[in-house]
Amino acid sequence: MNENVLGVGQENGIVTLTLNRPEVMNSLNFPLLHALKDQIDALRFKREVRVVIITAAGEKAFCAGADLKERATLPPEKVREYIFTIRNLFTAIEELNKPVIAAVNGIALGGGTELSLACDIRIAASNATMGLTETRLAIIPGAGGTQRLPRLVGRGKAKELIFTGQRINAEEALKIGLVNKVCDQKDLLDECKSMAAMICEAGPVAIEQAKYAINRGLETDIHTGLAIESNAYWVCIPTKDRLEGLAAFKEKRKPQYKGE
Fold first, then answer.
1. 131 and 171 assigned to the same domain
2. Structural domain boundaries, residue 222
3. Residue 258 domain-assigned (yes or no)
4. Catalytic amino acids?
5. Are 184 and 243 part of one and the same domain?
6. For residue 58, is it left (φ>0), alpha (ψ between -120 and 50) or beta?
7. Do the bridges between strand 107-109 and strand 129-131 make them parallel or antiparallel, or are there none, so unpaired?
8. What integer pLDDT is reported at residue 38 of this predicted model?
9. Do 211 and 99 meet the contact criterion of CB atoms below 8 Å apart?
């Protein structure tokens, strides 16, 4: 019954993970969380995978957040387990050693917006609706929303959105910096794959170290951040890819990076 809750596709170094519960707006139940975790854990060690895209089945919803029908059946200790599971999963997505693009193909509320926040880049369909609506259910965002949203859009705007539980459309999300780009629903996956292909042209070790430097550096002061950047740069210096990049530039050809 639950084996198809997550679709997995791979092509040209790009893995697409598709939330596959369209009948319940791709809401997140335990089986889907566990399926996502298994994939994220495995992808960390697949060198042939350069970029991950997370999207969802159907044209109506990216993810409506927690499966509230499941939630209503859970005793308090299982609710705590759910929050622990989803928070750790989204942190694993944020810390994955490969870029992750969220293809927000429709409604993304609560945990759906939090899932997109854990990704590195967000591209939204023009019909997308986003928001952290938890306070309207007398709870708060529990999968990183109170931390990641203010870091992305600023403290004041994040407080406004979380305190009011407001839903915003794709254009407003773009305006405040919640998403990187908006496009037509029919073009969404192509846009994501086009960006992913551009990333795949870069050196994978360099991409991994750049992501690490940005994520870690933003959590500290500028001087420590610069030290983190320097250490990440040193990792790139002895790689074969760096030499390949220099050779390709000299020979006026496209580099062939191998992540070595």
1. yes
2. 204-251
3. no
4. 66, 111, 114, 134
5. no
6. left
7. parallel
8. 96
9. yes
The end-to-end CA distance of the chain, in Å, is: 41
**Distances 59 to 19, 72, 101, 108, 211 between C-alpha atoms, Å:** 12, 27, 18, 12, 30
Paired residues of 125 in beta bridges:
183
pLDDT confidence of residue 3: 64
Q: Report d(CA 33, CA 5) in Å as an integer.
A: 9
In a domain, residue 260? The reply is: no
User: What mean pLDDT is predicted for residues 48-60?
Assistant: 95
- Transcribe 187-240 into DSSP letters: GHHHHHHHHHHHHHTS-HHHHHHHHHHHHHHTTS-HHHHHHHHHHHHHHHTT-H
Please answer whether residues 153 and 177 qualify as being in contact, where contact means their C-beta atoms are separated by less than 8 angstroms: yes
Is residue 256 situated within a structural domain?
Answer: no
Instruction: Give the model's confidence band at 1: pLDDT under 50 very low, under 70 low, under 90 confident, else very high.
Output: very low
Domain end among 180, 200, 220? 200
Q: What is the mean pLDDT of the chain?
A: 94
Q: Which amino acid is at 91?
A: T
Question: How are strands ordered across the β-sheet holding 121-125?
Answer: 6-11, 14-19, 51-56, 100-104, 121-125, 181-183
How many structural domains are present in the chain? 2
Rounded Cα distance, 100 and 92, in Å: 11
The proportion of the chain whose per-residue pLDDT surpasses 90, expressed as a percent, equals: 91
Residue that terminates a domain, selected from 200, 225, 241: 200
Query: Mean pLDDT, to the nearest integer, of 156-163?
Result: 97
d(CA 143, CA 246): 42
Sequence-distant (6+) residues with CB within 8 A of 183 are 123, 124, 125, 126, 191
d(CA 162, CA 156): 10
Phi, psi of 257 (to 5 degrees): -85, 140
